[in-house]
Amino acid sequence: MIDHIGFSVSDYERAKAFYQAALAPLDYGLIMEVPAEVTGHAPAAGFGANGKPDFWIGGEGAMNKPVHIAITAKDRATVDAFYKAAMAAGGRDNGAPGIRAHYHPNYYGAFVLDPDGHNIEAVCHTPG
């Protein structure tokens, strides 16, 4: 089981604003922020739900390869809300909400690229 994940971004403040907006429909919020003075190199922001940060970004600079991260949504309407919020926050379409039957018959996901090109997905595995 994964406890948390983190990756670097090219523009920390821009990415933090993007994720605050894009993850809100998934009930994810900014849980904590660690300043550069504490990390010793760059600030970090931890997003999550129920008080536990499990999705981290760091201001170390752009990565040379994008990452793919999928976050579980409670229902298909939440996947739709994530997509809409992420697009409004400056995300780029990488797969509108819909069934991805090649994974399984109830796989309903939406994919957006964040400002650094990371592929962020919201997915619901339950029927309708």
TrEMBL record:
Molecular function GO labels: dioxygenase activity; lyase activity
Record keywords: Dioxygenase, Lyase, Oxidoreductase
Superkingdom, natural source: Bacteria
CDD domains (alphabetical): VOC_like
The keyword Disulfide bond appears for this protein: no
Residue ranges of domain VOC in the record: 1-125
Pfam families, sorted: Glyoxalase
Name recorded for this polypeptide: Catechol 2,3-dioxygenase-like lactoylglutathione lyase family enzyme
